[in-house]
Amino acid sequence: MKVVICGAGIAGLAAAGRFAARGDDVVVLERAPGPRPQGYMIDFFGPGHRAAALTGLLPAVRERGYRVSEAAYLDAAGRRRAGLPFAKFAAAQGAELVSIMRPDLEAVLAEHLPDRVDVRYGSAVSAVEDGDDGARVVLGDGTAVEADLVVGADGIHSAARRRIVGPDRGLVRHLGFHTAAFTVDDPGIHAAVRDRFCMTDTVDRMVGMYGLRDGRVAVFTVHRSTDPTPPADPRAAVRAEYGSLGWVVPRVLELCPPAPRMYYDTVAQVVAPHWRGRRVVLVGDAAHAVSLLAGQGASLAVAGALVLADRLDAAGTVAAGLADYEARWRPVVTEVQADARRGMRWFLPRTPGRLRLRRLALRLAVLPAVNRLVAGAVAGSPVDLDAVLADRTAMAAPART
Ligand SMILES: Cc1cc2nc3c(=O)[nH]c(=O)nc-3n(C[C@H](O)[C@H](O)[C@H](O)COP(=O)(O)OP(=O)(O)OC[C@H]3O[C@@H](n4cnc5c(N)ncnc54)[C@H](O)[C@@H]3O)c2cc1C
Fold first, then answer.
1. Which of 82, 150, 309, 379 gives 359 a disulfide partner, CB atoms 3.0 to 4.6 angstroms apart?
2. Which ligand 1 atom is the nearest neighbour of the CA of 283?
C-alpha cells in the first residue's frame, strides 16, 4: 500500500515508522524546510512510553532524554515552596517517565526510519482529496501525490482535517491560556534550575524551566487569556505578561528570543466528530490535540500511530481498520482531554487560596494514596495501551465522508 503522511512532527514520524514496518511504501510531506530545531521539554510517559518500548525506540529515547529529579515550585525569592519527585509521580502512573526535548524525540523517530521512507521537507500540503479507492494530496506548488491512504499528521490546524471534517471553527477549542517556549543560554539561570523542573509558584501565570545538559535552559510560559488569537509580537507579549515575576524570571525575559526562535500559541484542544474519511485518517494533534495541560499529546501521538497501524494489520479492509482504530483510540483521548480540563484549576490557580491548597496537597503527597491523587490530577488516569491493542472486537461506527 502507498501511504502518504502529511506532517513530519511526532505523530507523522511515528506513523511513518509503523507503516514502514508493515512493508508499506511511505512518503512524508513536511512544510518546514528541515527538522524543526526549536522546541520545549516533553515529559514522555504513559501510552507513548509503552509504544516506544514495544517498537524498540525506548533505548534511544532514554539516551537522548533527561532524568529530572523533581518538579519544584519556587517563590519570587527562589525559595522552594512545594515539589514532587518525578520518580514518585511516574510510579503513580504505573510506569517510567523520561523527559526529552521535542526536536530530540523527532530525531529519534526519524533516525529509526528505514532509508526507503521518503521524507520530503519543504512540501506544504494545500489540499487533500478523498476517494473510494485512493486519495490525493495537492501541494502548494500545484503538484499532486497519489496514495492508497493519506494520514493527516499535520497538527492542530490540520489541512487534512479540513477535508474530511470541516473548518477549524468549532473543532479547535480555546481553553483560555496562551503558551510560549524557548531556550536561553545563561550559566546563572542553569545553576539555579539544575536537574529540576522549576516552576514559579504564581497565580494565573507560570514560568517553567528545565536545565539542559549543554548548559542551556528550556523555558515555557503559560498565562490565562480569553483572547483566542496569538499577539502580533509574541516576545513583547511575554515580556509584558511575566514582567512582574521574581527569581530568575527578569533575566529569562531579557534573554528571550523573538519568533521564530520562540514558539507561541494559544492553548487548545481539538474535538472532531470523526477522524476518518474513506482513504484519509487523522493522527496526533490533528485528530485530538489534548493540549499541554494534559502533558500527554506527544505520548498519545506515538501510541495512536501504533494503534492505527496495528488495527489496519488486524482488519481485512482499510475501512474496517480505520473504523477499529477510531473505535479503540477515541475513548482514550476523550478521557485524557476531560482530565486536562478538570486539572486546569490546579495547573494555574486563580487565587492565592488555591495556590496554598496546591502547596498543601504536594506536601501531603509523601503519603502513597495522596500521591496517586496528585499524580492523577496532574497527568490524568493511566492509559493501558496493551488493553487497547488487545484483539477484542470493537463496535466500529460507520465511516463518514
Ligand atoms: C509548551 C508545550 C509543552 C508540551 N509538553 C508536553 C509534554 O510534557 N508531554 C507530552 O506528551 N506532550 C506535550 N506537549 C504536546 C505535544 O508537543 C504535542 O501534542 C505533539 O507535539 C503533537 O505532535 P503532532 O505531530 O501531532 O503535531 P505537531 O507537532 O504540530 O506536528 C505537525 C507537523 O505537521 C507540519 N505541518 C502542518 N501543516 C502542514 C501542511 N499544510 N503541510 C505539510 N506539513 C504541515 C508541521 O510543520 C509539523 O511538523 C506540549 C506542547 C507544548 C506546546
1. 82
2. 26
Specify if 7 maps to a domain. yes
29 within ligand 1 shell (Cβ under 6 A): yes
Q: Does 394 score more than 50 pLDDT?
A: no
Determine, yes or no, domain membership for 244. no
Report DSSP letters for 84-97, one per residue: EEHHHHHHHTTS--
Mean of pLDDT values over 203-224: 96
pLDDT, one tens digit per residue, over 104-140 is 999 999 999 999 999 999 999 999 999 999 999 999 9
Domains in the chain: how many in total? 1
Residue 178 lies in a domain: no
Residue predicted with more confidence, 397 or 27: 27
Classify residue 387: in a domain, yes or no.
no
Query: Is 180 a pocket residue for ligand 1 (Cβ < 6 Å)?
Result: no
pTM across the whole model: 0.93
Is residue 124 in contact with ligand 1, taking CB distance under 6 Å? yes
Domain residue limits at 336? 2-171+269-381
pLDDT surpasses 50 at 329: yes
List CB contacts of 48: < 8 A, sequence separation 6 or more. Answer: 296, 298, 299, 300, 301, 302, 303
Q: How many CA atoms lie within 13 A of 286 on its CB side?
A: 32
Question: What is the atom index within ligand 1 of the atom nearest the CA of 124?
Answer: 42
Q: Which atom of ligand 1 is nearest to the CA of 296?
A: 11
Average pLDDT over residues 332-358: 91
The protein residue with its alpha carbon nearest to ligand 1, atom 38, reads 154
Residue 87's pLDDT is what? 77
CA distance 329 to 305: 10
Other CB atoms closer than 10 Å to residue 369's CB: what's the count?
Answer: 10
Query: What gap in Å lies between CA 5 and CA 171, rounded to an integer?
Result: 21
Distance CA 258, CA 231 (A): 13
Please answer whether residues 61 and 100 qualify as being in contact, where contact means their C-beta atoms are separated by less than 8 angstroms.
yes
Q: Verify whether ligand 1 is closer than 6 Å to residue 28 (CB atom).
A: no
The pLDDT tens digits for 148-172 are: 999 999 999 999 999 899 998 889 9
Burial label for 59, CB within 10 Å (0-12, 13-18, 19+), is exposed
The finding on whether 285 has its CB within 6 A of some atom of ligand 1 is: yes
